[in-house]
Amino acid sequence: MTEVCFWVPEPAYYAIAIYHDVNSDHDFNRTIIGMPAEGFGFSNNAPTRVGLPSFESVRFRAGPGTTQVPISMRYQR
């Protein structure tokens, strides 16, 4: 498990997208047919079917104090 702390300027709605740069090329690699070749995840563990999830499905409210947002990494097999 990895934990990260972000400072946000004010209570509001935010979203997080993450990816695992397996080969350290600073790029989100895809297969020849456009599928993710590296791990990824979104706040709220929003589902992805075709394309990126909507902001409404990934947003969360960060209030004053601590807001925890668990994200599960997904790897295409």
What would you say this structure looks like, in words?
This protein is mostly beta strands. It has one domain. Helix content is 5%, strand content 16%. The protein has one helix and four strands; from the N terminus they run E-E-E-H-E. It has one helix spanning 55-58, and strands at residues 12-14, 17-19, 40-42, 60-62. A two-stranded antiparallel sheet has the order 1-4. The radius of gyration is 14 Å and the shape is globular.
Compile the SSE list and pairings.
Elements: E1 12-14, E2 17-19, E3 40-42, H1 55-58, E4 60-62
Antiparallel strand pairs: 1-4, 2-3
Which structural class matches the secondary elements? mainly beta
Mean of residue pLDDT values: 93
Order of helices and strands: EEEHE
Q: What is the helical fraction, as a range of percent?
A: under 10%
State Rg.
14 Å
The largest β sheet comes out as:
2 strands, antiparallel
In terms of DSSP E residues, the strand content is 15-25%
Q: What is the count of structural domains?
A: 1
Q: First CA to last CA: what distance?
A: 21 Å
Q: Order of strands across the widest beta sheet?
A: 1-4
How many extended strands?
A: 4
- What best-fitting shape do the alpha-carbon axes yield? globular
What are the segments in which pLDDT stays under 50 over at least 5 consecutive residues? Answer: none
Number of alpha- plus pi-helical segments? 1
